[in-house]
Amino acid sequence: DVKVTxxxxxxxxxxxxxxxxxxxxxxxxxNMFWYRQDPGLGLRLIYFSYDVKMKEKGDIPEGYSxxxxxxxxxxxxxxxxxxxxxxxxxxxxxxxxYRESIAKNIQYFxxxxxxxxx
Amino acid sequence: ILNVEQSPQSxxxxxxxxxxxxxxxxSSNFYALHWYRWETAKSPEALFVMTLNGDEKKKGRxxxxxxxxxxxxxxxxxxxxxxxxxxxxxxxxxxGSTLGRLYFxxxxxxxxxx
Lengths: 118, 114
Known about the structure:
The structure holds two protein chains of two kinds.
Chain A: E1 4-6, E2 10-13, E3 19-25, E4 31-38, E5 42-49, E6 56-57, E7 64-70, E8 73-78, E9 87-94, E10 108-109, E11 113-117
Parallel strand pairs in A: 2-11
Antiparallel strand pairs in A: 1-3, 3-8, 4-5, 4-9, 5-6, 7-8, 9-10, 9-11
Chain B: E1 5-7, E2 10-14, E3 19-24, E4 30-38, E5 45-50, E6 56-59, E7 62-67, E8 72-77, E9 86-94, E10 103-104, E11 108-113
Parallel strand pairs in B: 2-11
Antiparallel strand pairs in B: 1-3, 3-8, 4-5, 4-9, 6-7, 7-8, 9-10, 9-11
């Protein structure tokens, strides 16, 4: 089974702190994604990555950065946390393998990190 | 930003009722439509991946249909049970979509009362 692990389920930080959210997947997936989920707004894509050291902005990248130094790990960084970044953060991964033409692009999600910024 | 709409936003039904909800997406550049189920305190999990116009997929009491020409998909649950309570998300994958990027709707939150 695919496993996507997020380092924390709950996190409480203070305004201005630097926050790291870690995500690790064990299926050798090429693609990894960070979303935030807020009530009534669904899943919004922050950043994604298709390879080590590669990254693409999603729809709401402002205030965030990412790091992908190893294929299995994708980190989301809040350089200076603000109260409007209080949210549920979800990490996901998918394969680009063309051998699984239908199954490719299915995203496998972690359990989420609920971040509160006070 | 590509628009994927789901309706209704939330739904409350009694155990045993059948229910359905809708996902609307752009009909151009279609490649695939995904349905995910997201139960409270768990991770979203893929239910169906649909690619062909007229496709119908079934998994137990849950089924889904796809109309790519008009840009909609229906998800049906027959004889809802409390364990079906979850948020159901649909996601659009466009042809030539950058690196498997999915565009998610806002979800339909289903509550099934015993």
